[in-house]
Amino acid sequence: MDILTNRSKNDFAPLPPMGWNSYDYYDTTVDEAALMRNAAYMAEHLKEYGWEYVVADIQWYAHDPGSQRERFQYIPFGELELDEWGRLLPDPKRFPSSAGGAGFKPLADYVHSLGLKFGIHIMRGIPRIAAHLHLPVAYDNPVTRERLAACPEAGFPPCPERGLNAADVADPASVCGWNPDMYGVGALAEGQVYYDSLLSLYASWGVDFIKCDDICNTNLYPHRPYSARHEVEMLSRAIRHCGRDTVLSLSPGPALIEEAWHYETYANMWRITDDFWDDWRLLKDMFKRCQLWQSHVSRGCYPDCDMLPLGVLGKGFGRERNTNFTWEEQRTMMTLWCLFGSPLMLGAELTKLDKRTLTLLTNSAVLAMRDPRFRPRQLRLTEFEAVWTASDASGEICPDDKNSTLYVALFNLSDEKRRVSVPLAECGVRLSHGALCLRDLWEDTLLQTRELLQAELAPHACAAYRLL
Amino acid sequence: MDILTNRSKNDFAPLPPMGWNSYDYYDTTVDEAALMRNAAYMAEHLKEYGWEYVVADIQWYAHDPGSQRERFQYIPFGELELDEWGRLLPDPKRFPSSAGGAGFKPLADYVHSLGLKFGIHIMRGIPRIAAHLHLPVAYDNPVTRERLAACPEAGFPPCPERGLNAADVADPASVCGWNPDMYGVGALAEGQVYYDSLLSLYASWGVDFIKCDDICNTNLYPHRPYSARHEVEMLSRAIRHCGRDTVLSLSPGPALIEEAWHYETYANMWRITDDFWDDWRLLKDMFKRCQLWQSHVSRGCYPDCDMLPLGVLGKGFGRERNTNFTWEEQRTMMTLWCLFGSPLMLGAELTKLDKRTLTLLTNSAVLAMRDPRFRPRQLRLTEFEAVWTASDASGEICPDDKNSTLYVALFNLSDEKRRVSVPLAECGVRLSHGALCLRDLWEDTLLQTRELLQAELAPHACAAYRLL
Amino acid sequence: MDILTNRSKNDFAPLPPMGWNSYDYYDTTVDEAALMRNAAYMAEHLKEYGWEYVVADIQWYAHDPGSQRERFQYIPFGELELDEWGRLLPDPKRFPSSAGGAGFKPLADYVHSLGLKFGIHIMRGIPRIAAHLHLPVAYDNPVTRERLAACPEAGFPPCPERGLNAADVADPASVCGWNPDMYGVGALAEGQVYYDSLLSLYASWGVDFIKCDDICNTNLYPHRPYSARHEVEMLSRAIRHCGRDTVLSLSPGPALIEEAWHYETYANMWRITDDFWDDWRLLKDMFKRCQLWQSHVSRGCYPDCDMLPLGVLGKGFGRERNTNFTWEEQRTMMTLWCLFGSPLMLGAELTKLDKRTLTLLTNSAVLAMRDPRFRPRQLRLTEFEAVWTASDASGEICPDDKNSTLYVALFNLSDEKRRVSVPLAECGVRLSHGALCLRDLWEDTLLQTRELLQAELAPHACAAYRLL
Amino acid sequence: MDILTNRSKNDFAPLPPMGWNSYDYYDTTVDEAALMRNAAYMAEHLKEYGWEYVVADIQWYAHDPGSQRERFQYIPFGELELDEWGRLLPDPKRFPSSAGGAGFKPLADYVHSLGLKFGIHIMRGIPRIAAHLHLPVAYDNPVTRERLAACPEAGFPPCPERGLNAADVADPASVCGWNPDMYGVGALAEGQVYYDSLLSLYASWGVDFIKCDDICNTNLYPHRPYSARHEVEMLSRAIRHCGRDTVLSLSPGPALIEEAWHYETYANMWRITDDFWDDWRLLKDMFKRCQLWQSHVSRGCYPDCDMLPLGVLGKGFGRERNTNFTWEEQRTMMTLWCLFGSPLMLGAELTKLDKRTLTLLTNSAVLAMRDPRFRPRQLRLTEFEAVWTASDASGEICPDDKNSTLYVALFNLSDEKRRVSVPLAECGVRLSHGALCLRDLWEDTLLQTRELLQAELAPHACAAYRLL
Known about the structure:
The structure is a homotetramer.
Chain A (H helix, E strand, L loop, with lengths): L17 E4 L1 H4 L5 H15 L6 E4 L48 H9 L3 E7 L2 E2 H5 L9 H9 L15 H4 E6 L6 E4 L3 H17 L3 E5 L15 H14 L4 E4 L9 H7 L2 E3 L8 H14 L8 E3 L3 E2 L2 E2 L7 E2 L4 H14 L3 E4 L7 H7 L2 H4 L7 E7 L3 E7 L14 E7 L5 E6 L12 E5 L4 E5 L2 E6 L4 E6 L1
Parallel strand pairs in A: 1-2, 1-14, 2-3, 3-7, 7-8, 8-9, 9-10, 11-14
Antiparallel strand pairs in A: 4-6, 5-6, 12-13, 15-16, 16-17, 17-22, 18-21, 19-20, 19-22
Helix pairs in contact in A: 7-8, 10-11
């Protein structure tokens, strides 16, 4: 019996994943040098604070991506790098180490050598061109072969005489609304064989993290926005089959709250928003999204607020620029993401990070809030302010209870300076005679108060506290 | 100036088209012999009553259609017959006369030689395989060349150096939910060039009628069910450009009543129902659909109740069988289709028609109701009965007015024998002292009445009258 | 047998009704003097051009309407004038002649004495207060009594011992979203008795026209926007029962195109828009609405573009003002309403009309387009222009055909001066060698042309022509 | 400062409430004797197991409820018992002790004397008749007066000279789709004054629990199903103002998952289903509903599966009958409700409970699962079976960990006998060498196993275990 089935996918990510993703800076144009450069930076400056994933985002398999940017983000019917089994490979022009069938293994090895983890983006499904060319599916890859031997009754389809091919797997009516590369995979055993062949390859490369796109919300079909739910299950099964701990991240959002159970059962993280960028309206809106999902953060299960658009961004989109977020907004974003328990994926060219931004990313006291044992709870949300707490206490907290932790964050969502306050009793603190002592996590100061916690906040600013 | 622009598409079909369509008997498997056999029958037995179109329905371009019927009606990623410009051609195995690039011309010539007209079914869009193979678009076909010469300012795209190809035309996010052959065409000038190349080919073959599918209701996208409206406009324009009178029929239904104006402006007929078959519930339901569309029948503009599933049906679907409609239901169907003004397309193997069914199709008095000058009007519809009139009078009709015509039909929609009646005044007849004289169109008898028109009707039966 | 059942509701309004309505100027505050003043003006200045209805709009039954305008248009739970049978009566303070139970009879008599017709606005349903007070329904009014005698089997409910009362009729779950006065009436025989009692009263007053509100689109319930369809049928039946020709107008819009058949069968006019005011965006939008409904104009059946907000408006709303429409927009509105075949209801204090506006309303050549025999057809609608025709010809028109009429209107919908043109062939004119002669209906000039009809138009302006 | 604001509504119900509700047996007809009889039974037989609430359900204020049952469940415009301030009072005929203005105080005193708690059902809003009669609102009740004195700046409306009355409070466009008694209350300060007057009265009676109806899902308005959200807030505020711990229960369902945060913030329990009855399909369906809400059970916050239709039911509906649930189904229901953490409200005439049913309700081991510290989690749901766990462990459980508890329940949802099993590792148990020991909660036996927990289950049966 396969020992691995005893390992829960929740063990792959006991804390919300932290890392870097190539998209916000490179769009479709990331290459090997960029990934190595950013990985090296992470190892040197960020690793000790918990940052560990290095993720190559969309179209690493495309030839000449970005060459028709004025018309297309993704060139329709463009050339893709494929192996003989219809599986996408890194574009060898951009990833020279992948040549000769090595795939992402050399790059993953490098990342691992730095003590980091390696992730890739994929589109759900199978390349359209593979289906039209009737490319064979790697039916007898080692994993599938082994499983068939161990488990002949597993119900996998007998290999048709002509062999299984991509046309048997692809669903011609399931396409993505914004990327032209793939067909969805039908809900048949043949599809599982294909996904197994995919994960078998990725495991052989050493992939630790997969961000699968067009799957969390298949927005071409608004009347059935979770139409690829069977593909989520197939991916989850293929991860268990492949024998390598692989975090599964689903994109794009917004995820569907009524499918929370499904995401939690099969994936590690799922996007609760469409692409997030450095725009205050999107950040302000995130408070509502976090409100919606606040009860759905648990070990191995993370609603995902999307990448952190910090530092220098946008080169791959045609214009390199600094983030539009003010310093206050950056802190507000970090505070909300951490207290809520979202994964943290940096969207920035790391090597261009300025010192102040670096302090934002290396505040251990703030990052410590990212623990699913602390259950986030929004106490208040208005047009003008928000108040959140997070705690591992199940009832009231006594100030001298050393076994419980309480975080409180105050947010000024208005465009004016504003005093934001909250009675400590509302936060679940049992008041006593003496004053309470709190640590201000950003200012790294101590403060004392009796009944009310309050702060004078600049527009869009926040304050975050831990009860000592 | 192009003389053809003076010819209205409404002139192509001054009466609702009548003909035969291969689908109900042959599904995807129709061949040349079958078309010729049915055409010959039509010329001999039906032509004099107005039947004239012979239409080859879906997938005449597919190799081995129907060979995986237990799994697919349309084989995904199956082989299609294409010319070098990415245009579909008849499967030469089934249509031997089409070999050597002749296309449907020999068959169309044969049909024309019988005094009939020739029609084909197409799926909207461009073959997917043409896009993936980057096949060139027949940019400089004679029609396009001529138009460019006459009208250099027409706004057609300058031929890119590499030439225009199918990948420039296909919209990778626009597919059909039930047939895997095509991509939709984007709303760009390039798309018009492609459609022009298509109609130019069809005109050269001698095609008189095009039934375009997945266009009247693009039901994969229920939130935008008329998502291919620009392709309707492109087809309409291509018909005007090609210089040949070509009736444009849109499928499948249900058409969208809020788009009635668009259908009326660009097409000749549009399906108001999903596929209609020989099932009483569908027939009964058609009374509501005709009610919805009764004001939208006019010269050259016909809401389409779909094929008449009569006689022998179904061989291509795997089981040859007689229609399930009773004799009464067949008359009810003919009466409603004719009075309402729907096109009449026979879905039957004509050579197997029995004599009684033939009488149904050759009742000139009934067929005469099919004239858009007679405006159909439902007076009543209940669970149990329906009453319709059609007339060319704008106000009341005097019994002795020789310039106006009035038809009245009574329908028993219940499952019991039933007396159905209507006051003549309600039909718009100005009552006078004497009795009125009416002709019973099915029984070919005369009857007289004063105020009330009534009939004793068997279950699902009807009676139809013309005021003399 | 009741002779009246032979009279069709379509005979009550063989042309789209023309008249005046108190709403745009008076809101809820119209009174007897105002109605008489406007009626007198109409008789003197407008009657000869076809204007005939004088309509008292909403809440003529309310005490102190408009007295809390800063908070409410319709005062919730305000006092209403009722008779002992729960039927609303004119507020005697505002309508002194109605005192003593006379109701609107004296006022209607006055309007009739001027050769005009009298109309009232009602809300669908029964006064809420009548239901809560269990007021009796006028079960044995003359009309009901007579019908019961003549037709004992008619199925009317035996009068319960305690008598029928408003609580038996009112549907407590059917209310209006914007007016608090009424409950809807349930789909029961009791409801018909109530509506009969209502129409019997109105007929005794001499009412010629009823505008019933909250019925064409019951917008509090967007998921079943025609939830009061049974009340439309009840009203229609009550009109037939009451023995007086009474035009039935349904409000508010937008009417539902999929219910066109129902409106056409039971009513004379129905609003295709929410309240229309003097705002160019609303006027421009009307071209789409008319496009949607163009096939549904016929004798006695009129899609209604709503009142004409001309001249002096708004006093009852708190601020008297001149229409915001430019002169060009006013002509555009008149042209579209007339060519399309909408009813024309003036929303203006007539006694304050200026001379130029008067010429707009008394252009017989323009008003002559309002004949349902001329079928309106939009040829083109873009962001920038529109072209409409109307004709009684069923096919092409020969220029020398004296039996057919053709109207063409060209509209500049852009904000710039613009030349708008249309080929005459597109309008259905068979071209001949000589030039065609047309009359410009607004400029009252003749012009000649060969193939193209064109006009240089100021922003928002139009030109309208009749083929001679 | 008001000391009460420091008390959280979550403290009012630290465990999911347990009790009895009159509806399933009495419909609208419950009376004082019935409530006392059932309370006495509960005190004697059930109290020691945690059952404590005695709730009088709908229309305790109505005269002659149920007297027109063949036509109405709730008689439209029927007579209601009101005080002079428009507040509903118990019908004195059915509740004699309430006479003379005593209200429910005597009955609540009796219930309290038994050591139990007293609850009432209310419809959201204000009696319609109070608005139509302009009854005054109890503006200067003690609570409001005190708060105004303490807090003059609170923003409460200055009492208009004529006094505040029900017509100022009622929203005439907000009604219930199935009960005719009330108008919703508008989102104005006046509404809060009304709700304060209501809760002030209820607190004076000694009410401990309010089930408010037509508020959790205002299903007359499916496009805005939480249209009364402001009334939930007003009720919550009024409870805080009134100074008495009062559990707030919202009805009917289904509650909206996207509003989970709002329910959790303002209420104690909310119905996740429409009315639940003794029908297997509804019970089976509840597994999906619990799946949807499983992350939303916490201290003071309970998704509510509705009453338990056990024992003898239905007399008030016209036919007394035994529950339709089989014994297996009853156990399945109890197991799911308890493990999930739903409130438990008996819908049965308690005095007619048979012994076996009583054992179902007094199994302390099963009832102990009802603790929000045990987080429910569905591991599997198919057409045929379900597996649930509940635990207070945050990660894996070691079998010898004495600080954590794990429950596992296996359900056979099929109509056949079935073996249902689950690997213990999947339940979060860290496997060790020895066997694990579990207690079967229904059979009260111990069992040992190593890796797999399994049970042979009759149709619709279940097994529930606690890890020792």
